[in-house]
């Protein structure tokens, strides 16, 4: 349990809030690249409580500007993309991607003082099928050189999902190993596509997660955040070892669908304090993703990236299917399960009323990291995992794996060797 003041610190992300200032020290996804095609219409977006407009100029460069024109406040998302920028359709003011006013056509001489006006603008970059923005002070840090952003497009898929709740409870679900034995459990694996067989076993992930519902959990501090190891007894002389990661400040990496050497990422980006976008990446180091995996990543999503299942229809829960098919009765889509579990806590979970237990140690550790990082920003220091040195901008040690090991094995030593092996695969 944390105090009300701490809960507010961790969940309020608007301008001039402590956690909002923390989030602004990192590059954040602002849109999928597919949402802003060449010559596409400007896109109205809200991120970290700021109303903005995203557009591409004729050179294809993305620009992120304050939504309202600096002249008299008209919505720029209705504007025209032309002449090197975005033109307000009220009086024709033209802005470039840096927020510079380059034309004031209604002023004598084209506006003698236009260069004194600096419209709000945030730098953007594009990687991995996503447009990122930096909304913080000073010189932007480097965008972390994550593997999932740099593999060929054929080896990656990315989408996003709207969640009607605060970003923090969304990401805390990713770093909770125990819920996998309940929320996502299939009572029968018949007719369930793309089940993953765990390395070193002939059993599926689902089966092994169901065998030991009270795993041993260990948490290790890293330069990027936390490495989370869970161990489950599987009977006989084997233990099921699963390694996932919390990545500062608002993402997580874990084993997803069948991707071989690779992993999935959930990146939870606040829209405001009561809603967020979850950007969902999946990638393989070895090969192009199969079409069925690409389809699975967008299963039950509407054209505007909303889930068909929601609180409005009680996540289409089927009580009959709870007897024979799934633990929740909410189908086989993990994203819908996650939405139910996090949205039903309320738009901002009241953490003063919770009762944390030993299996919540990763959540406790992540909250401490965030609170420490908020304090770092307050005292003028870069928080953990802000990257400025190109020589250290490599995260091949950010690895995810799940496999069977001998029950007698030193799992820490095994995990160290396994991470080193994955690093070699990533950088042959």
Tell me what the structure shows.
- The chain has helices at 4-11, 18-23, 147-150, 167-174, 205-211, 291-297, 321-324, 334-343, 361-378, 411-426, and strands at residues 28-32, 43-47, 50-56, 62-66, 80-82, 85-87, 94-95, 101-103, 121-122, 124-127, 130-133, 156-163, 216-221, 225-233, 238-247, 251-254, 262-272, 275-284, 401-406.
- It has 2 domains: 28-133, Rieske Iron-sulfur Protein (3-layer Sandwich); 147-426, Naphthalene 1,2-dioxygenase Alpha Subunit, Chain A, domain 1 (Alpha-Beta Complex).
- The model has no long low-confidence stretch (mean pLDDT 94).
- It is 21% helix and 25% strand.
- The strands form 4 sheets. Strands 12, 13, 14, 15, 16, 17, 18 and 19 form an 8-stranded antiparallel β-sheet that branches. Strands 2-3-4-9 form a 4-stranded antiparallel β-sheet, with no helix packed on it.
- The chain has 10 helices and 19 strands.
- It is of the alpha+beta class.
Please describe the topology of this protein.
Elements: H1 4-11, H2 18-23, E1 28-32, E2 43-47, E3 50-56, E4 62-66, E5 80-82, E6 85-87, E7 94-95, E8 101-103, E9 121-122, E10 124-127, E11 130-133, H3 147-150, E12 156-163, H4 167-174, H5 205-211, E13 216-221, E14 225-233, E15 238-247, E16 251-254, E17 262-272, E18 275-284, H6 291-297, H7 321-324, H8 334-343, H9 361-378, E19 401-406, H10 411-426
């Amino acid at each position: 349990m944390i105090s009300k003041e701490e809960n507010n610190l961790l969940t309020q992300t608007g301008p001039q809030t402590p956690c909002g200032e923390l989030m602004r020290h990192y590059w954040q996804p602002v849109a999928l690249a597919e949402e802003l095609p060449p010559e596409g219409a400007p896109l109205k977006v809200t991120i970290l409580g700021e109303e903005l407009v995203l557009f591409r100029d004729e050179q294809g460069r993305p620009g992120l500007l304050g939504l309202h024109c600096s002249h008299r406040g008209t919505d720029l998302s209705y504007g025209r993309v032309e002449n090197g920028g975005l033109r307000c359709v009220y009086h024709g003011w033209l802005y470039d991607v840096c927020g510079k006013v380059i034309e004031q056509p209604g002023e004598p001489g084209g506006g003698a003082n236009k260069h004194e006006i600096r419209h709000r603008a945030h730098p953007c970059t594009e990687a991995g099928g996503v447009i990122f923005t930096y909304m913080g002070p000073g010189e932007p840090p480097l965008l972390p050189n994550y593997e999932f952003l740099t593999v060929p497009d054929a080896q990656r898929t990315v989408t996003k999902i709207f969640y009607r709740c605060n970003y923090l409870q969304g990401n805390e679900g990713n770093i909770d190993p125990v819920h996998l034995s309940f929320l996502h459990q299939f009572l029968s694996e018949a007719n369930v596509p793309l089940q993953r067989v765990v390395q070193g076993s002939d059993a599926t992930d689902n089966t092994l997660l169901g065998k030991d519902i009270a795993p041993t959990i260990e948490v290790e501090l890293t330069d990027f955040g936390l490495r989370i190891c869970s161990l489950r007894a599987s009977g006989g002389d084997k233990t099921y070892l699963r390694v996932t990661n919390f990545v500062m400040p608002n993402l997580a990496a874990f084993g997803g669908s069948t991707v071989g050497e690779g992993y999935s990422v959930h990146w939870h980006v606040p829209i405001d304090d009561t809603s967020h976008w979850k950007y969902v990446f999946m990638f393989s180091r070895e090969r192009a993703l199969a079409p069925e995996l690409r389809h699975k990543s967008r299963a039950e999503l509407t054209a505007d990236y909303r889930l068909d299942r929601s609180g409005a229809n009680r996540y289409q829960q089927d009580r009959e299917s709870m007897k024979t098919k799934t633990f929740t009765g909410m189908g086989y889509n993990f994203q819908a399960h996650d939405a139910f579990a996090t949205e039903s806590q309320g738009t901002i979970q009241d953490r003063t009323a919770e009762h944390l237990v030993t299996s919540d140690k990763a959540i406790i550790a992540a909250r401490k990291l965030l609170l420490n990082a908020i304090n770092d920003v307050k005292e003028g220091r870069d928080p953990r995992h802000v990257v400025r040195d190109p020589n250290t901008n490599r995260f091949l040690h950010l690895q995810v794996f799940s496999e069977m090991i001998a029950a007698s094995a030193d799992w820490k030593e095994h995990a160290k060797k396994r991470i080193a092996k994955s690093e070699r695969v990533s950088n042959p």
